[in-house]
Amino acid sequence: MIPITGNEVAAARERIVVLQEEVARCFLGSRRPLEAMTVALLARGHALLEGVPGVAKTTLVKAFATALGCATRRIQFTPDLLPADITGTYVFSPKDGTFALRAGPVFANVVLADEINRAPAKSQSALLEAMQERQVTIEGDRFELPLPFLVLATQNPIDLEGTYPLPEAQIDRFLVRINMGYPSAADEASMLRTYGVEPPTAKAVLSPGEVVSLQAMVERIHVDPDLADYAVALAQFTRSHAKVTLGCSPRASLALMQAGKAFALMEGRPFLTPDDLRAVAPSVLAHRLVLSGELEGNADARRQIIEEALAKVSYRRPARGR
Q: What is the pTM of this model?
């Protein structure tokens, strides 16, 4: 693989900044959720935004999707949603006497899965194959999904009425999980002052081809072999932790490495550093942990375990012989 050049990294970072600034025009709040969504995009992953109703989760993902300039479809998850409502199905045409595929909303570059945990597991599972393999199987026929392909899902806290918890296999398909907290007092006051005024709408600043090109650049970010050892050590720390029933899998290690490379590109560097891995570790690893006993489902406890791993697992560059 041809190493990425400094000029390519600088040009890529400029396009990423343009994307983030465009989204920030339409979303008042912390930049952290936007940065995590950008990491997921560049790393060919998916993002799950969690927060109580009314903290602008859908506003953020809609602005982000629009700014990408890609084909976008929205799915409102409800208890009566069927898998065929997501993937599509074959429909009989009496005129021709044949069956034709009626493609579902999953056949888009960006799929907005709104309140994904309001649908039962059967409907949630319709996204598993699409998220992992970028394809869907409908009545035995396999269909490739367009590139780029990104799922931006929102969910309410599972203790709210009418929600179904996402199974571990579904959560593991999301590269990052983003906690949408309440806005700061200053941001909320700014919202109140502008209420009643027509809000700004995002415009497309990228194209599908540009997004695919940026994703390809992430693959060319240089990674020293010892950084792979560091990523594995972080994952192994969670597997042996006393409070953890199910630690980070090898898929989590791969996700951490890919997200770190995406973060390096966002920072304008052609190589991965330990700080890149540390920066993305909480959003990439914490949601993949299953804790024991009374800590099960405690998001704060999961994040604390990842922070403990970052504090206790040291990175040491091995000495290399001449």
A: 0.91
